[in-house]
Amino acid sequence: MSTTVFRTRGLTKVYDTGKVKVHALAGVDLELYEGELTVLLGPSGSGKSTLLNILGGLDMATGGQVWFRDKELTGMGDRQLTNYRRDHVGFVFQFYNLVASLTARENVQLVTDVSQNPMTPAEALALVGLEPRLDHFPAELSGGEQQRVAIARAIAKRPDVLLCDEPTGALDSKTGVQVLEALKTVNEQLGTATIVITHNAMIRKMAHRVLRFQDGCIGSVEVNDTRIAPAEIEW
Q1: Angle, CA 99 vertex, CA 93 and CA 105 arms, to 5°
Q2: Is a pLDDT exceeding 80 seen at residue 231?
Q3: Whole-model pTM above 0.90?
Q4: Any idea what the Cα angle at residue 70 is, between residues 69 and 76, rounded to 5°?
Q5: Strand pairing of 193-198 and 161-165?
Q6: Which residues make Cβ contacts (< 8 Å) with residue 223, sequence separation at least 6?
Q7: pLDDT band at 1 (very low <50, low <70, confident <90, very high)
Q8: Res 169: pLDDT
Q9: Cβ(73)–Cβ(84) under 8 Å?
Q10: HEC states along the chain?
């Protein structure tokens, strides 16, 4: 049986604007597992990004509980959450957030310099197929290459979980496939629990499990017995 990485019970998140209360999460119960690639699928505003931010320690739940392994995240203070993010979580967002004045190697080194047991930047970049581009600046890289640098930066500290919010959202089909191949490699070779938010329903076919969100709740769970390669995904 797979080891549980995340567990939530009755998780809620309410944003109070003063006039209107927005219920982003409405009692989410789920378990996510070590070595699993999970896709969160659903329309904008369904609660996917809110859940990802709470799992990653970037946001606090309004109610309910969330555990990372045997540690309860709900109730942790800012310093504890900072340590949790530093030691256990890698983030990949739609926009790459690379430092323009640093090379690919140096962008990854920003993480390895503050990590406890990191890969070398060269090792992390090799894992996503960028060995020839170590000393190139972001402006010299394609969009897909920049996103793969962002993935290398996220995985260089050997995180337990990799949280990806629309990692192919700004890419065309060819470069999107390259990014998905990199995520698949990380998941399989490092055993990193990988959670991907996407609007592209076809990406679900490469996942172990798919969680469909609607109105702050998980509407259904789909298990893939036969997964396809990223190159087979229709865009």
Answers
A1: 95
A2: yes
A3: yes
A4: 100
A5: parallel
A6: 208, 209
A7: low
A8: 85
A9: yes
A10: CCCEEEEEEEEEEEEECCCCEEEEEEEEEEEEECCCEEEEECCCCCCHHHHHHHHCCCCCCCEEEEEECCEECCCCCHHHHHHHHHHHEEEECCCCCCCCCCCHHHHHHHHHCCCCCCCCHHHHHHHCCCHHHCCCCHHHCCHHHHHHHHHHHHHCCCCCEEEEECCCCCCCHHHHHHHHHHHHHHHHHHCCEEEEEECCHHHHHHCCEEEEEECCEEEEEEECCCCCCHHHCCC
Q: What is the pLDDT of residue 138?
A: 97
Q: Report CA 143 to chain centroid distance, whole Å.
A: 18
User: With pLDDT > 70 as the criterion, what percentage of the chain qualifies?
Assistant: 100
Nearest to 23 by CA among 13, 31, 32: 13
| Residues in the chain, total | 235
pLDDT, tens only, 193-202: 999 998 888 8
CATH of 35-59+89-232, one of 3.40.50.11810, 1.10.760.10, 3.40.50.1970, 3.40.50.300: 3.40.50.300
Q: Which residue ranges make up each domain of the chain?
A: 35-59+89-232
Give me 84's structure tokens. 């949790």
As given in the structure block, the two tokens for residue 25 are: 């999460």
In terms of Cα–Cα distance, which of 91, 92, 89, 54 is closest to 169? 92
